[in-house]
């Protein structure tokens, strides 16, 4: 099983603007994702994708059985006009996709069924400016982790969260 995380920078657009109707680098992203060839891939910074594509369009576009796309719902980013998000693509059996809130931003919890066992994968995009906010987001994230299940936390963590390791 191959699992990957990829920060695609502004959803494949050349900027965080709204001049283009579709991502200019979409074909390059499709090619790169094809080369990565992961069974599960978390795409970070899928700017505007929740407004541009349906779940079925994303699945078809990238050749995956399942997709899930969310907006971060970060008020600070929305005020800047950044409709940033996270997208998950997978060919693995999904029990459920769930949007979870980590203080100021949303994340994706995916529960997979692997060999009659559950595996949780959290795809996150932690705050890009404040270590204090990242610590709060990480503490909230850890409340969602089921200690009895194998779990992967991936995405753009933006830094090491050393404060968490002290406790």
Keywords:
Deoxyribonuclease I, Chain A; 6 helices; globular; four-stranded mixed beta sheet; Endonuclease/exonuclease/phosphatase domain-containing protein; 167 residues; Endo/exonu/phosph_ase_sf; Endo/exonuclease/phosphatase; alpha/beta
Q: What can be said about this structure in brief?
A:
This protein is of the alpha/beta class and 167 residues long.
Q: Name the CATH class.
A: Alpha Beta
H and E order: EHEHHEHEEEEHEH
Which overall shape is indicated by the principal axes computed on the Cα atoms?
Answer: globular
CATH architecture type = 4-Layer Sandwich
CATH topology, which one?
Answer: Deoxyribonuclease I, Chain A
Sheet having the most strands: 4 strands, mixed
Report the average pLDDT across residues. 93
| Low-pLDDT regions | none
Helical element count?
Answer: 6
Helix content: 25-40%
What is the spatial order of strands in the main beta sheet?
1-2-4-3
Class per helix and strand makeup: alpha/beta
Query: What is the CA–CA distance across the termini?
Result: 33 Å
**Rg calculated over all Cα atoms:** 16 Å
Number of strands: 8
Number of domains: 1
State which percent range the strand residues make up: 25-35%
CATH superfamily heading = Endonuclease/exonuclease/phosphatase
Pfam families: Exo_endo_phos (PF03372)
InterPro entries: Endo/exonu/phosph_ase_sf, Endo/exonuclease/phosphatase
Protein name: Endonuclease/exonuclease/phosphatase domain-containing protein
GO molecular function, one term: catalytic activity
């Amino acid at each position: 099983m191959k699992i990957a995380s990829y920060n695609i920078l502004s959803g494949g657009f050349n900027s965080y603007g709204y001049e283009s109707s579709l991502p200019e680098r979409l074909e390059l992203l499709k090619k790169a994702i094809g080369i990565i060839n992961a069974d599960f891939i978390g795409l970070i910074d899928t700017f505007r994708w929740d407004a541009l594509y349906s779940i079925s369009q994303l699945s078809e576009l990238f050749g995956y059985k399942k997709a899930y796309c969310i907006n971060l719902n970060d008020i600070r980013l929305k005020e800047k006009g950044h409709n940033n998000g996270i997208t998950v693509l997978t060919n693995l059996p999904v029990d459920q996709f769930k949007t979870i809130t980590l203080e100021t931003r949303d994340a994706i919890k995916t529960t997979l069924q692997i060999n009659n066992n559950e595996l949780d994968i959290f795809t996150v995009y932690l705050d890009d400016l404040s270590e204090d906010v990242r610590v709060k987001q990480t503490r909230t994230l850890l409340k969602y982790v089921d200690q009895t299940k194998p779990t992967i936390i991936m995405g753009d963590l933006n830094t090491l969260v050393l404060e968490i390791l002290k406790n």
